[in-house]
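Input record (one chain):
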Amino acid sequence: MAKIGVALFDQSENARSACNALIDEGFDRNNIHMISGLERNVDAGDIYRTLTRHGVPDDDAGIYAEGVKRGGVLVYLRTDDERAEEAAELMARFSFVDIDERSRTWQNEGWSGFDLDQKDFGQEHERGRRTQSERTRDTQEIGDQHVQGGQKFEAVEEEVHIGKREVETGGVRVRSYVTETPIEEDIRLREERVKVDRKAVDRPVSGDSQVFKEREIEISETREEPVVSKRTRVIEEIIVSKDVGERTETVRDSVRRQDVEVEKLGGQTHQSRSSVQDFDKDFRSHYDQNYAGGEYAYDDYAVGYRYGTMLSEDQRHKDKDWSGVETSARTQWEDRNKGTWDKFKDAVRHGYEKARDKDSSYGSRGSQAGPPPG
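The corresponding structure, as predicted from the sequence alone:
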């Protein structure tokens, strides 16, 4: 019997990685589906109906649909019963959302449950897109807030908090039971029998013979018989206990950062922080030449490239080459990404030098670089 496995992700990178892992483990590519809340023409109602049609409980289907509606990424697949648990474990490696916890958070914010009749969220999302021009940059814009004399935009970034929880990974069942084993042993037994011999004789009576007197004697016969006794002995002890050990596990995830872009119509564009997308083609080329096929994907190195462009905008580093900023850059990086500087420093340097080369196109720099992305 087929089962459906469903997982909700906050990051599209994690969702894609989960899909690739499922395919690598032999799950049918045609049965794996990924739906992003940032795509156009995605209908939350269709997602809800699809999941419930495949047996997902109504409440859970509503949470998944609401998650996609809020910009999450849904991965679901159909598989056999015997592989359903394997699929769930594979997707869990990529930090999927705990829907019970997420729904409680939404409820605390006033959410009363998924509304199947609510207007399609794709239209609402489309209304928030910029209409001045079709930009290809991956710069996200938050909702504007009206303030006196204009509107306010906020640049935000996510922080990662790594915790831990206890999960059951297996165990040992110990039981005692009784068996009977036949035994056999030979033993020698003694047995007495009274033997009476009568024989004819012809001789005179001796002087001490007791004749003409009645006599009676009894002689007993005895024999030995087996006697079985049992004594219980302890032949083995089984002690059940736990050995507790600790290990260090590297947890990898990604955080989103939202910068604010200010475009002067009819003039040049100034950014409060340079975007990786400004140099995306160059950075991808640098990645392909130096890191492709290694431990980390391009999205991981993009964090380093972005940090380098941020450093180039810091007024404190004006007119400094890389050797003049490397020490402070490393200190800030290690504060947020301990032990990874040597792996990413070349990407940071390339981002810094690339942004400096393009410096003249942005005007004066008056900001300071914030901490590196975590």
